[in-house]
Write a sequence for this structure.
């Protein structure tokens, strides 16, 4: 390794990253297939998810399909295709349609349920810890975030909000990885200003609010 590349690595190591992270964005997102999709390293899957969600948004929001109507139309179309395919298999020498006997394996369902159960328990435990007044900064941040979301939700439909959220998940990580240094520099400056204002707010407002008894978090 030459000195110039070493200097570059040292500079990047000393740079303040967004949210104080020390790992690459791909590792932060899990480092697996989900990270590949969000960072557009699996272009086909990422594009399929984006266009699929856009098609669903178009059908429900623009065409104004209802879920029941769309569900019935999809099943009607599927049944007609299978019927025509089966009826014409002998005449046109096609192979009749075959479906696998087991589409979802039982171990896979158990793994998903177990993971979902653990995530819910961890979320509720963290929520109880913060709501008890043990982390005033995070408590205040959650309240403000929920209030902002409630204001947005009152003027934007749930479908539009979900589609916008998915759009952000599909685009923002990719753009951040591409312009990582510029975003980190800007975020560092904003974070410095916010810390200064929060310290003033903490002394003048939060410091005067009585807190509940501090309980140690149980480490599982």
């Amino acid at each position: 390794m030459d000195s110039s590349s070493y200097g570059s690595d040292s500079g990047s190591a000393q740079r303040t990253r967004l949210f104080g992270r020390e790992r690459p964005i791909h590792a932060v997102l899990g480092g697996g297939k989900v990270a590949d999709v969000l960072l557009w390293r699996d272009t086909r899957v990422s594009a399929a998810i984006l266009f699929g969600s856009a098609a669903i948004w178009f059908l429900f929001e623009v065409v104004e399909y209802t879920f029941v109507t769309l569900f019935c139309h999809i099943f009607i179309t599927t049944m007609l295709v299978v019927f025509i395919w089966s009826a014409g298999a002998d005449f046109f020498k096609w192979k009749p349609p075959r479906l696998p006997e087991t589409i979802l394996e039982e171990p896979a369902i158990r793994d998903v349920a177990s993971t979902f159960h653990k995530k819910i328990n961890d979320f509720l435990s963290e929520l109880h810890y913060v709501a008890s007044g043990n982390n005033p900064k995070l408590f205040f941040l959650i309240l403000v975030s929920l209030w902002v979301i409630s204001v947005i939700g009152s003027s934007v439909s749930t479908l539009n909000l979900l589609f916008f959220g998915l759009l952000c998940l599909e685009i923002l990580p990719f753009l951040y990885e591409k312009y990582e240094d510029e975003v980190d520099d800007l975020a560092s400056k904003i974070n410095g200003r916010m810390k200064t204002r929060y310290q003033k707010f903490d002394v003048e407002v939060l410091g005067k609010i009585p807190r509940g008894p501090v309980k140690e978090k149980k480490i599982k």
User: Anything to note?
Assistant: The chain has a mean pLDDT of 77. Residues 106-134 form the longest helix (29 residues). The CA atoms of residues 15 and 184 lie 8 Å apart. The radius of gyration is 25 Å.
